[in-house]
């Protein structure tokens, strides 16, 4: 099998048409997308290395899974610690929603600081 190299004329130069191999199609969730945005803007060398070594998709899928697990674990732990129960939900729905939103926001901040924005 021979690989033919094709070129594109750019002004006075012929540049090779380089193409990365196909990466596996993996659904990346919100955490992986946030991390992708972060590394593109703040860690371009890491981004380029992962992209050119065809490891970007797997890396983002792993970060997404870790962040999702951490988020749900934190929400559960914080809710238990603060005594937010199904009984509270039944007795006072608005208070339950308010407190759960507060917990979710704190958990999201922790995940962002420890996994996404690093």
Automatic annotation (TrEMBL):
User: What's the superkingdom here?
Assistant: Bacteria
* Full protein name: Uncharacterized protein
Q: Which InterPro entries match?
A: TnpV
């Amino acid at each position: 099998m021979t690989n033919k190299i094709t070129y594109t004329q750019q002004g006075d130069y012929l540049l090779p048409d380089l193409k990365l191999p196909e990466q596996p199609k993996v659904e990346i969730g919100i955490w992986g997308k946030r991390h992708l945005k972060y590394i593109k803007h703040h860690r371009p060398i890491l981004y380029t290395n992962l992209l050119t070594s065809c490891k970007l998709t797997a890396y983002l899928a792993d970060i997404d899974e870790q962040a999702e697990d951490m988020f749900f674990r934190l929400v559960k732990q914080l809710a238990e610690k603060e005594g937010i129960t199904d009984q509270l939900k039944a007795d006072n729905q608005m208070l339950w929603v308010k407190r759960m939103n507060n917990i979710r926001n704190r958990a999201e901040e922790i995940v962002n600081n420890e996994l996404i924005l690093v």
